[in-house]
Amino acid sequence: MRVLILEDERKTVQYLKKGLSEQGFIVDVAENGEDGLHFAVTGDYAFIILDVMLPGRDGWSILAELRRAGRETPVIFLTARDSVDDRVKGLELGADDYLVKPFAFSELLARIRTVLRRGPGRHPDTARIVDLEIDFLKRKATRAGKRLDLSPKEFLLLWLLASHSGEVLTRTYISEQVWDMYFDCDTNVVDVAILRLRKKIDDPFPVKLLHTVRGVGYVLESRISEEHS
Question: CA–CA separation, 98 vs 63, rounded Å?
Fold first, then answer.
């Protein structure tokens, strides 16, 4: 899941980005209101963390414009403005939650999970392919009832493939989504990661799910009658 942080305090940005990345989210950041509004309106985000006081354009107007544009992306205000009037204003503008600084990351994460579980714009947080089950919010993956021991990147890679089950994903797309960067065509980091993931989710089991589409990329799907590539 890709998320957007609109915040101009560098320490807060670093703290949030580190914590959310460790939870498997891909994090985009904007430190001023104009860039933030552009990202929010044009991007596809699971949720947005929004400060009220931003250079160029404040959080109130960003949220109002976002809702006027018909975007239902969940928004959590994270701000030092702690008056009841501010909280009411944020919620009336269409925010899904309002958290005051200073804050505990564990509380923010709990609120994020609650927001993701509700509402018409929610992203699915579980996936199942044959006997492979993945719970994104619990950071848990099992195959045939057996817990899979995955690193954070392996889990994110598996979640990406499962979210696009049956769809061939290119190496470039995978590198952008999992590592949040472009890799040179000669870099085999994606292939190495796929190999390690395959050893954990496929090799011990008779039905193979992770397949190579040569010259294109990878796909997660059931091919009962075939051996995996």
Answer: 13
